[in-house]
Amino acid sequence: MMRKLFFSTLALLAVMSDADAKVRLPHLISDGMVIQQNSDVRLWGWAEPGRNVNVTVSWTDAVSKAKAGKDGRWETTVKSPKSGFTPLSITFDDGEPVTVSDVLAGEVWVCAGQSNMEMPLRGFGACPVEGYNETVAEAPNHPGIRFVKIPSVMSMTPLDDAQCEWKHGDDMNAVAECSAVGYYFARTVTSAVNVPVGLIMANKGGSRVESWLDRDNLSRHTDESLDSMAMVKGFAWDFLRPLVWGNGTFHPILNYSVAGILYYQGCSNVGDPGNRYSERLKMLVEQWRRDFRQGELPFLFVQISPYIYGGADGDGGARLREQQFRASRIIPNSGLVCTNDLAYPYELKQIHPCRKRQVGERLAYMALSRYYGCGGLICESPSYASMRVSNDTCYVKLDNLYDGLSRLQDIEGFEVAGEDRVFYPARAEYEWHKGVMVSSDRVKHPVAVRYCFRNFALGNAANLGGLPLFPFRTDEW
């Protein structure tokens, strides 16, 4: 009896040893994943300390090796193939093999920010996404789109893993949960250049830019309290808290190899003074680029849409948009998408405008033009360049018109002021050799012009690609 018990115990210990030896992977590295094509893709996980891990792939005979450290962590890289729609596999072996299947090589983009990026195709309560049924009905025509949602989790310390799973964008039941902006971006890219697109959705509704900054940046460059109890007392709404969303929701993806970052955030920073927002956004981009370890990753972001905020005619939202425009000028390899035309008049009090397709497509046009060699696309919105005043008329020159403005007269959204700093609605007409001619019978000696520089102001000026003119002001009042 004792002999039988002895051997039974040995067998149990052997099974336990095998179980302990089995390599563990982060949830991001799992069936259905998309890996960044033509790159050194990082792969990582955990195993028994000191144990060797061999990584083999279905597209080459090469073997990548790693050794688990004292903490059990290991990391290696594999050369990924050119993009394709044929499923691949990756096997991790530390004595007991684990295989990840249904892997595609393509383009991987992060969908970061707050609720307008998080907003799924099915919409939020009382916040629909325009064109939902049509989009879902034709989703099976786009089999190369995959997405994974990182759970919105707070943590005082950086997390290395997240409970998540990759889903197929051509699954009509699953696609409703995909970020609407992200999906339309992916659909446009995969249609244009015929590559699979993977979306990693790491975002949190209502978050501030400070929500994503790390402890070092927050302690050195802000006055945000990093004490957990002080955070709870200072921010009744948890989505406004600094540090914790970056630690819990973004940190788990930092080892993944990606093509770039899409970012839609800013509403919760309306009211920030001076250049604080643009400087902190620049700091965040530098932090993410450092942590992804892939050089100057593309950073494409979205200007916040018209919304009432403290009042439709106020300028808190306009000043935040101005800060976003400034950020696009001081962050290398970045691009900003204008959305001034993407709110309906009845969406005055709607923080989540329904036209997400155009947002995703405009991000895609920028990516396709800049990074995928797609010539012929108009991807930049017009912006203010200069102004001169002659008598009672201001002559405004604009950049990125692509040879013309969308209309010659009945241009809405311009205002003009004299030295009294009182702005009045203005007439605006366009002539290609003069620019936009802005005037008002109520301002005989104009000194400043503004375009849609209010919380909720819908203009109609656009370039030949239909992209709207960025809101601007020529004054510094």
UniProtKB/TrEMBL annotation:
Pfam families: SASA (PF03629). Residues 107-366 form the Sialate O-acetylesterase domain. Keywords: Hydrolase, Signal. Residues 1-21 form the signal peptide. PANTHER family: SIALATE O-ACETYLESTERASE. This is 9-O-acetylesterase. It comes from Xylanibacter rodentium.
